[in-house]
Specification:
Elements lengths: L2 H11 L4 H8 L3 H9 L6 H11 L9 H4 L5 E7 L2 E4 L2 E4 L5 E5 L8 E5 L15 E6 L8 E6 L2 E10 L2 E5 L8 E3 L7 E11 L3
Helix pairs in contact: 2-3
Length: 200
């Protein structure tokens, strides 16, 4: 059953008109009509609201065609901006999620970032690639990690010498950067790169 049919069936089960559902979701009735015709699809935040409203898992709305042929899937957030203020890491709310094979996400918590710039091209990571990150505050020397510095997030190879971080790009035109967490307080490793996915 398509997403369009599932939304329509749930709406009717709960005896809601398109207008009533639209009001609950804060959208125009024409948006709900479009979803039920399959002309377009709701954003992830609207699907989350409907999942809660209709008491179904969010994965209910996705059929195998929409999720691909990888078997069991989990939906992971794709974050844009990540901040490190007062020593706390803050992920900006997102409405973008990526269906991900469950076998990729065993043994931890995961999220996605999008690669920005060309500093990691030597590691075959290009701008726009989807980066699967495992949440963890420490990585081994030489591993590629997502590191939050003040109000931005970077992907670098991390080397640690006592308490000093050295962040190394995989592009020779960018010199290594050294940080001392004692004085550079707004720096934090938030995760280890597990996969880089190039979308075509």
């Amino acid at each position: 059953m398509s997403m369009a049919s599932k939304i329509k069936n749930l709406r009717k089960q709960f005896k809601l008109t398109q207008k009533e559902l639209a009001e609950k979701l804060g959208v125009a009735p024409t948006a709900v009509s479009g979803w039920e015709r399959g002309a377009n699809k709701p954003l992830m935040d609207k699907l989350e609201i409907m999942a809660n409203m209709f008491n179904v898992p969010i994965s209910y709305f996705f059929d195998e065609t929409e999720l691909g042929d990888y078997g069991s899937k989990t939906l992971l957030p794709v974050y844009g901006n990540v901040y490190c203020g007062n020593g706390d890491v803050v992920f900006e709310p997102t409405t973008e999620y990526e269906a991900t094979p469950e076998e990729w996400t065993k043994g931890g918590e995961y999220f996605y970032l999008r690669a920005v710039g060309d500093s990691m091209t030597g590691a075959r990571i290009n701008e726009g690639d989807l980066l699967l990150i495992r949440s963890q505050p420490v990585v081994e020397n030489g591993e590629i990690a997502a590191v939050v510095i003040d109000d931005s997030i970077v992907l670098k190879r991390v080397y640690r010498d006592n308490n000093t971080f050295t962040l190394v790009s995989a592009n020779p035109k960018y010199p290594p950067i050294r940080y001392d967490p004692k004085t550079d307080k707004h720096i934090r490793i938030v995760g280890k790169l597990k996969k880089s996915i190039t979308e075509y």
